[in-house]
Amino acid sequence: MKTVLIADDDPITSAVITETLEEGEYRVIYARDGKECVDMAVKYNPDIIILDVIMPVMDGVEALAEVRKTSDAPVVIMSAFGNSEKVERARELGIECFISKPFDPDVLIELFDVIFLAE
Questions:
Q1: Quick check: 86 pLDDT over 90?
Q2: Which of 17, 20, 61, 112 could cysteine-pair with 105, CB 3.0–4.6 Å?
Q3: pTM of the model
Q4: Which of 41, 42, 52, 5 is nearest to 26 (CA)?
Q5: pLDDT digits (tens, 9 = 90+) for 44-58
Q6: Distances, alpha carbon 50 to alpha carbons 10, 107, in Å
Q7: Any idea where the domains of the chain sit in the sequence?
Q8: Which sign does the torsion angle of CA 39, 40, 45, 49 carry?
């Protein structure tokens, strides 16, 4: 079973993603801010990470830069701000893809299937 780390401060978004992924037989762990994401990435070594850009304590791009020091797990950035400098910086740090909010939860399952088939 693949482990997915979701880092998003919006509990509704996280709940939708969690429900969708658990139906797809993924194990889901959840972080409420960027700092917690970094800590959980080290502790659990997830197979893939979903990061929101705008989060408290440490934003998603800062968290991504820290996670990249110890992990090369695929990262999906989700944000309502598709053209921001932060998203461009995330692309430089090697994200797998960017998904705009609002999003279709089924797209995540399809995306994960593609990512994991490519391994």
A1: no
A2: 20
A3: 0.89
A4: 5
A5: 999 999 999 889 999
A6: 13, 13
A7: 3-117
A8: negative
